[in-house]
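=== Structure Prediction Worksheet ===
Name of assembly: unnamed complex
Input type: mixed (protein and possibly other molecules)
Chain count: two
Listed entries:
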Amino acid sequence: ETGVTQSPTHLIKTRGQQVTLRCSSQSGHNTVSWYQQALGQGPQFIFQYYREEENGRGNFPPRFSGLQFPNYSSELNVNALELDDSALYLCASSPSGSEADTQYFGPGTRLTVL
Amino acid sequence: AQSVTQPDIHITVSEGASLELRCNYSYGATPYLFWYVQSPGQGLQLLLKYFSGDTLVQGIKGFEAEFKRSQSSFNLRKPSVHWSDAAEYFCAVYGATNKLIFGTGTLLAVQP
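=== Predicted Assembly ===
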């Protein structure tokens, strides 16, 4: 069974640029959630996708957007990057989007904005 | 508002000593509670979870946690810490809008 994978591992961008981060869910999982973890903080919920539809969103501006594909892989897009967007971005997959599900996390993408 | 508080930012214990990491939550309904561990440069690994039933939950790596509704707490314990347990530990509650709400974490150092 393949776990959750994310790419790339590290990324450096400059202010104002756009970035796309990718996540492959664990086999059999149809729900993916994205989190932002700033240095020294706990992860903050960005949004969740269930069967290709957004299924909940945290307190992040619209320049954070996402997609989920028919194979349940996912992308996180961030436009107009700001310095404060520097963080570890984590995706997590779960079997069905139920609150009773366990979320399984990938290793994360470290984004640095200069 | 739903929230999780981990009062201890950093804890150091000796190898072989017992460990207790504190977690307090604020949530109106019956909470779904989790403990995750994060090693440097890694994602989060689930240690254990509480949904209902027995308030003492057993997890992986010899960890356990006890849910106390009267104290709004879900403290993590381990009777004997190993050097490999050094990591950051996060308590989380499943909140509205399908999100996990995390505490700020407790960084555990283990000295020989």
